[in-house]
TrEMBL record:
Source organism of this protein record: Streptomyces ficellus
Name recorded for this polypeptide: DNA-(apurinic or apyrimidinic site) lyase
Pfam family, one: Fapy_DNA_glyco
Known EC number: 4.2.99.18
Record's keyword terms, sorted: DNA damage, DNA repair, DNA-binding, Glycosidase, Hydrolase, Lyase, Metal-binding, Multifunctional enzyme, Zinc, Zinc-finger
UniProt xrefs under PROSITE patterns: FPG_CAT (PS51068), ZF_FPG_1 (PS01242), ZF_FPG_2 (PS51066)
Domain Formamidopyrimidine-DNA glycosylase catalytic intervals: 2-115
Organism placement in taxonomy: Bacteria, Bacillati, Actinomycetota, Actinomycetes, Kitasatosporales
CDD domains: AcNei2_N
Catalytic activity: 2'-deoxyribonucleotide-(2'-deoxyribose 5'-phosphate)-2'-deoxyribonucleotide-DNA = a 3'-end 2'-deoxyribonucleotide-(2,3-dehydro-2,3-deoxyribose 5'-phosphate)-DNA + a 5'-end 5'-phospho-2'-deoxyribonucleoside-DNA + H(+)
InterPro entries attached to this UniProt entry: DNA_glyclase_Znf_dom_DNA_BS, FPG_cat, FPG_N, H2TH_FPG, Nei2_N, Ribosomal_uS13-like_H2TH, Znf_DNA_glyclase/AP_lyase
Length: 265
């Protein structure tokens, strides 16, 4: 599931393979971009912003993509077989003499003027992995609506950019509260610790795809506290982990009824 750390790593791999090189192949397979041709232009850089990817191209253009739940970018050398999915799932191809980036199942793909980037990412809150990360502003935004459930507030990219469903569940567990506890009911100091923990976890995971929130244990089978651990015993108290589906399977909340205080779903 792509979250801020996955986007950061994806952007850096794309940048390392393509930045500064001339595009020799360009194929954008969405109807409104079918006639766009970027070949002959230099790809300047690939920048992550929260969960958004901004691929900047010579001539003042930006290819904006968002992976949402299932999207992915893969980078291949000429001798590698493309293995990111069947051909009908390909939405974008950007090729140079040495590498080809292939975008699979991209639900959002737009070609915009680079000067118009604020129109697609200007609403985002402080980026947990951005160079201008502002913890104090993130706390202020997170606490701006005291009645809002914590899980919703954490997922709102206008508060802090980069948290997805996995981190939402894990952060609530680490704070020992349920995702449905109103933000205003958090004990003093907890919002600050939540934001600091979120930043620490994303920083720790940004250079690997095998995300883990249990950083003090090297056991391969213990990576996450509650996420995807339905009916398994809590590592802390032994109670069975529970799950609630919200907005279909796109929003799953996992929690421990023994460790986490607060209202249920």
């Amino acid at each position: 599931m792509p979250e801020g750390d996955t986007i950061w790593l994806t952007a850096h791999r794309l940048h390392a393979a393509l930045a500064g090189r001339l595009l020799t192949r360009s194929d954008l397979r969405v109807p409104r971009l079918a006639t766009a041709d970027l070949t002959g232009r230099t790809l300047l850089d690939v920048t992550p912003r929260g969960k958004h990817l901004l691929t900047r191209i010579e001539g003042g253009l930006t290819l904006h993509s968002h992976l949402q739940m299932d999207g992915a970018w893969r980078v291949f050398t000429p001798d590698q077989r493309w293995n990111g999915g069947p051909g009908h799932q390909i939405r974008a191809i950007l090729g140079t003499a040495t590498h080809t980036a292939v975008g699979y199942r991209l639900p959002v793909l737009d070609l915009i003027r680079t000067s118009d980037e604020p129109n697609v990412v200007g609403h985002l809150g402080p980026d947990l992995l951005g160079p201008d990360w502002d913890a104090e502003e993130a706390v202020r935004r997170l606490c701006a609506d005291p009645a809002r459930p914590l899980g919703e507030a954490l997922l709102d990219q206008r508060n802090l950019a980069g948290i997805g469903n996995v981190y939402k569940c894990e952060l609530a567990f680490m704070a020992r509260v349920t995702p449905w506890l109103p933000v205003g009911d958090l004990a003093p100091g907890v919002p600050e610790r939540l934001v600091a923990t979120a930043h620490r976890l994303l920083e720790a995971n940004k250079e690997r795809f095998d995300r883990r929130t249990i950083l003090t244990n090297d056991r391969a089978d213990r990576r996450l506290y509650v996420y995807s651990r339905l009916n398994k015993p809590c590592y802390r108290c032994g109670a069975l982990i529970r799950r609630k589906e919200e907005l279909g399977r796109d929003r799953l909340s996992y929690w421990c009824p023994g460790c986490q205080s607060g209202p249920g779903p």
